[in-house]
Amino acid sequence: MNERDSEKIESILQENGYEKADIKEADIVIVNSCAVREKSEKKIFSEIGRIRNLNKKAKFISMGCVAQIFPQKLSKISDVVLGTASIYEFKNFFNKDFKGIFVSKEMTESDYIFGHLKSPTAYIDIIYGCDNFCTYCVVPYTRLREVSRSYNSIIQEIKNAVEIGAKEVILLGQNVNSYNFDGVNFIGLLEMVNKIAGVKRIRFVTSHPKDFSEDLAKTILDLDKVCEHLHLPLQSGSDRILKLMRRKYNFKEFAQKIEYFRKYNPKGSITSDIIVGFPRETKEDFKQTLMALEEIQFDEIYSFKYSNRPFAKAALMPDQISEEEKKERLSIVQDLQSKISEQINKRYLGSIQEVLIESKAKAFNQVQARTRTNKIVNIDNSKLNLNEGNLVFAKITKLNKHSFNGEICTN
Ligand code: SF4
């Protein structure tokens, strides 16, 4: 969502005749910020200091999640502070002095259609905010209450993105499954997007396990453009910890949702998020997380050490886990997941996958592509002429640590 917010700002600047410049010579410097973990929040303050030293003349804009929750603090080191719900305000800056705090307590102009930069993949906000208040999470304070965008503005924005080359759309929200506008739910919205000419693939992120249904699992199968990849954050394998986190499901219920997905999408992939070292997480609780990883067999997980976040209830809980213990648990989780991922990914070797060319790869003469199941495939382009946005079939030839190598199938 932060990436999309940055893109919105960049498109407004482009519309007003601005171009990207070297940071030392820029007239305006904008720093977008993330508050989801303590480390990223702290970094923003040191980063602003560092950049201001490089360019003392530029107008300085701080935006994003840290701006939303700490506007006063950021205003001491920025000319403008722009909250997550006030991006629309940025359109009006060009007639004014760049000065002030623009932080709304509710989403302004949720239906406004911002521009997109040319890319094969377009991020499309469908729902803003979150009403779940998981006890470790700052997002309900940084992104505020849930607001679904009108389907008309979503569809128009997708059409605009397709017109400038988007082939794939990623529908964004903290909890996309809660989408509800004028009687249209998330499944209804997927059906509408599936009909848009020029859209070749549809992805969505993030689903909350409590709202993921068998109907949605079947819709992924039924709608040809919806990719067979589900990101479903588990967070912990222990029911006791899930309750303390206020996740509103237990492990058995979570496993049931996974079964729904696999019943209709047996070749699909599933990724998840895991937090280790939540307050009061015992060794037994942690063991249950490891057992959950073994049982579910996620393709990949994004794993984090718990950190106290402002306003979040868990920061006040007793029995906080030491940094050392959290670090050790994280490394155990990551080691286990690496083995599971490797086993799952080996099954891809020799298979033929539909891939979307996204960009140049790091290696010379290679392009980076993505399967419908969200796996990265690097393809040698030295004798081919593959371009961003091409949708082709590739044979998977080699397994790397976090990606594959592939060869284009010519017949
Ligand atoms: S569902 Fe929970 S973890 Fe996700 S954004 Fe909302 S409060 Fe945070």
From TrEMBL:
Keyword field: 4Fe-4S, Cytoplasm, Iron, Iron-sulfur, Metal-binding, S-adenosyl-L-methionine, Transferase
One term of GO molecular function: 4 iron, 4 sulfur cluster binding
Annotated ranges, domain MTTase N-terminal: 1-99
Gene Ontology CC: one annotated term: cytosol
E.C. no: 2.8.4.3
InterPro entries associated with the record: Elp3/MiaA/NifB-like_rSAM, Methylthiotransferase, Methylthiotransferase_N, Methylthiotransferase_N_sf, rSAM, rSAM_horseshoe, rSAM_sf, TRAM_dom
Enzymatic class: transferase
Domain Radical SAM core: 116-343
Obligatory cofactor(s): [4Fe-4S] cluster
Transmembrane segments: none
Cross-referenced Pfam families: Radical_SAM, TRAM, UPF0004
TRAM domain mapped to chain residues: 346-410
General function of this protein: Catalyzes the methylthiolation of N6-(dimethylallyl)adenosine (i(6)A), leading to the formation of 2-methylthio-N6-(dimethylallyl)adenosine (ms(2)i(6)A) at position 37 in tRNAs that read codons beginning with uridine.
Name of the protein in question: tRNA-2-methylthio-N(6)-dimethylallyladenosine synthase
